[in-house]
Structure formats: C-alpha cells, structure tokens
Design a protein that fits this description.
2 domains, 19 helices
C-alpha cells in the first residue's frame, strides 16, 4: 500500500521538465531580440527601433493566435498539437536565422509568436492532466519554471554567445534545441485525447461561455492589472534604476532572476494547499515593492529589498494565476480558459510597455511605482472579493 501511495504521489519529472523546456523555448524566442538589437540592426540593414518590432510582432502573434487556435484544435490529441507547435518554432526561428529580408523576418516572428500563444494556452492544462488532484499545483509550477529561467539566464547567455557565434547562428541553435525537444516530448510525455465535440458537456463550451463562468473574469482582471503593473516597471527597469543611482543593472537583474527561481520552487511546494493566501500575499508584497520604489529612490538598501521581494512575487505568479483560472472552470473548458488567460497576460505586456512609454515622456519615471500601486490595490481588492469563485480557499 505504501509503495502504491508513493507511486501515486510521485511527479513525472521527465515529462514536466519537457513542458518547462517548451516554456523556456517560447520565452527565449520572444526575448532574444531585446539583447541583440545592434546586431539585428546591422545584419538586416534597419534601425534599432525597427529591430525592436521583432519583439512586438512576436507579442502580437501570441495575443491573436492563442484563443482561436486552441478553440479550433480542441479535438486534437494534446501531444500531437504540442509537437506541431514546437515544429513551428523550428521552422520560423530557422527562417529568422537565414532571412535577410526584414518583412519576411517580421512574418516569421509573428508566426513564432502564434506558436507561443498556443504553448501558453495548453501548457498548464497538460501538466495538470499528468498528475493526481493533490499534485496539480506543483506540476504546474514545474512546467512554468522555464519562464524565470529563460528571463534570468537565457537572455544574458544568448547575448553573450552572440558576440562569438553571431545572432544568425544563435537562432539556429534555438532551432536545434527545439528539434531535440520534439524527441523529448515524444519519448517522455504521455498523450491525452482532445475534447470530443460530440459530447453534450463539450458542445456547450465556447469562448463566451467560458468567459462568463463565475470566477474567470476576476482572475482575468487580476492577470491584467498585476501584469500591467509588473510590465510598467520591468519594461523600463533601466531608467527606473538609473533614477535611483544604479547605472549597471546586470547584477540587480541577476538578483531579481534568482529570487524568481527560488519563488517558483517555494510556490510549487505550497500552491496545492494555500493558493488563495499565496495570491493575496503576493499582491500585498508587490504593493510593498511599489512603495519601496516610490519612497526609497535614493536608498540602495530599500531598492535591493524591493528587487528581491519583486523577484519572489513574480516567480510564482504564472503558476498561481494559471492554476486559479483552470480551477475556475470544468475540465473540458480548461484549455480555452488558459488561452484567455495567456491572451490577457500578453495584452498586459503590451499595455504595460505603452503606458510606461507615455508616463516616461509625460510624468517621468517617478510616476511608475504609483501607477503600479493603484493597479495592484485594484487587483488585491478583486482577488479578496473572489473568495467563492476564482481565488477560492482550498
């Protein structure tokens, strides 16, 4: 009996790490141009501002692609869809590596972004189906680990390697990693059926019906406000830290990234039993971060505390929010709910960048923490009220 119980409570790490590498690949494909703007500008014969649109088009693809594709492929076997998605990364990252035509490169980035949107729409659901009920949160945390790892180590390592091998070879290396990942997926990931549209339970599932499900809208609102606040600060982290006297931010970002990874492990241990207090505590802690940025602009100790606390808050955010929206719906609606969440998340990234840009030219960098403060107060209030649906107590 004990042996069977231990087996039931054992996480399928090889499969979950394949999902984590898929997330790592999606994030790395998105952020690489941010560290390669001068090389991309020279290689494609364009300005750095135009080179920056390679990231913008990837984000657009993620926003517009997730919901319709996840909805249209609900009957597909899950592993087949995931493999096809990774093949899409191979194709369009390879086109990015060899293309000398800017418009073609933009199109490649758009479709790579569509693939990323599909990844975020199915990754959480896949991880949850691999484990029993009492391990679903931990499984999601492992599957989402690729996000902080890519942000912490992927971009700086990629930027460093590009100085030796060039940006084209670097994108080729990313494609090779994707090919290896396909083999890993086929080897270690179990396959799951899609939803049978002939069943009565699935025939009533639509994007609108999922959106109207009690609990979904509060979670989506928290995703929007939390991630907009995060991206107002993170997108413009360089001028924000420069205003506090920090001109070399590499070490600070490394500290932030390590705190994010630590948070992923901590949240993974606690999420299945304490998801609601973790959400509320994370939002409250992020409010403290905005206050530290707003009130400690000339105090290095306050800034370092804010950075560490911010990393701890952000590392587990994806697991907490994706798990919350998945728990708010019936099993047959999980993938659609997650695609709505990922679309909202990517929209918040774009919105945070846009709002931050307007604030930077109008009110100045000192306004960033206070805008984040207001957004997070709204998020905390909505999360607090959504006790019955959305952010339920376990």
């Amino acid at each position: 009996m004990n042996t069977n119980a231990n087996a039931a409570n054992r996480l399928p790490l090889a499969g979950l790490l394949a999902l984590a590498l898929t997330g790592f690949l999606a994030i790395l494909s998105e952020i690489l141009p941010a560290g390669l703007l001068p090389q991309l500008s020279e290689g494609l014969g364009i300005s750095q501002s135009l080179a920056g649109q390679l990231t913008t088009f990837y984000a657009i693809g993620s926003v517009v692609g997730a919901v319709p594709i996840i909805t249209a492929t609900r009957k597909w076997k899950r592993r087949s869809l995931l493999v096809l998605t990774v093949i899409t990364f191979v194709v369009f990252n390879t086109i990015t590596a060899i293309s000398s035509i800017f418009i073609l490169t933009l199109i490649a980035r758009l479709f790579a972004g569509v693939a990323a949107g599909v990844v975020w729409g199915m990754l959480t659901g896949y991880a949850r189906r691999m484990v029993p009920e009492n391990l679903k949160g931990r499984a999601v945390s492992i599957a989402m680990m690729g996000i902080p790892v890519a942000l912490t180590f992927g971009l700086p390592l990629g930027t460093f390697l590009s100085s030796f091998i060039g940006w084209r070879v670097l994108f080729g290396v990313v494609s090779v990693i994707a090919v290896i990942l396909i083999g890993w997926i086929l080897w270690k990931l179990p396959d799951f059926p899609g939803q049978d549209d002939n069943s009565s339970s699935s025939s009533s599932v639509s994007v609108w019906s999922v959106f109207r499900t009690p609990g979904v809208r509060p979670v989506l609102f928290v995703v929007l406000t939390w991630m907009t606040a995060h991206n107002v600060l993170y997108t413009y982290i360089a001028p924000l830290l420069a205003s506090a006297g920090f001109n070399k931010i590499e070490f600070i970002l490394l500290v932030y990234g390590i705190a994010s990874i630590v948070s992923t492990f901590l949240i993974g241990r606690l999420i299945d039993r304490h998801r609601r207090p973790l959400v509320l505590g994370s939002l409250a802690a992020f409010i403290v971060v905005t206050l530290l940025f707003g009130l400690s602009s000339s105090l290095s100790v306050g800034i370092y505390i804010a950075i560490i606390l911010w990393g701890l808050v952000f590392g587990g955010a994806a697991s907490l929010l994706q798990t919350s929206v998945a728990e708010a719906v019936e099993e047959q609606a999980v993938d659609i709910a997650l695609s709505l969440s990922s679309t909202t998340w990517n929209f918040a990234i774009a919105l945070g960048g846009a709002v931050g840009g307007i604030l930077l030219t109008s009110a100045g960098v000192s306004s960033f923490p206070w805008v984040g403060f207001v957004l997070l107060i709204l998020a905390l209030l909505v999360a607090w009220k959504a006790k019955k649906n959305g952010f339920k107590s376990k």
